[in-house]
Amino acid sequence: MTCDIGFVSPGEATSRGVFVTFEGGEGAGKSTHVALLAEALRASGREVVCLREPGGTRIGEQLRSVVLDPENDEMADMCELFVYEAARAQLVREKIAPALARGAVVLCDRFCDSTVAYQAYGRGLDAAAVRRANDLACQGIAPDLTVVLEAPSAASGLKRAEAVARPDRLERAGEAFHERVNEAFRALAATEPERMRLVTSLDSVEATARMVFDHLEGLLPELSLDALLGFARAVDAQRSLESRR
Questions:
Q1: 106 phi and psi, to 5 degrees?
Q2: Which residue in 94, 83, 144 sits closest to 118, CA to CA?
């Protein structure tokens, strides 16, 4: 199988757990909105498991440090692909599958769509080969819904990312590379509109969170808009305070 999956009804999703992924280019706000959504869902009483790719497990975090280390600039594109897939295989087996089996909400910052966008569209690897590698690593697990956050441009997204931390090996791949990645996410969202929902990442976290909610309320009926926006306003206020210092 690929990442494709039919949309899940709210009742079915609640009984078996819900898997939501956040995708998008650099600096799109994925980690911020994963954290906000987790807070709002936990406030409603749901168990939430937050993960990131690559990483999320002891082994995965070690692989992350290798694949994103700027000093590893000689890494071959195919090697890069397999490192991502190895980390994903461990994450699915150790974290995602067990959490879904016990009925938790799993929120993941990146999953298999990122591999198609970065390694197939960005690096130029054969798309069919990348999807086959995804199939092996995912082990039958696919997102119920994917929120694709889109920064205004690759340049603005990279600027946002660089304001948070030193650029990693992927962030240093160049603006043209990241433009291809952003185009890839738009193309993927257009081919799977039922699963992949495109959301413009605005400077206002609250405004972006409202759009995210619109796509998730049917899948997560316990999600409170008031709670989500309350947490988002706090982030906006903190950022505004920091900008004035």
A1: -105, 120
A2: 83
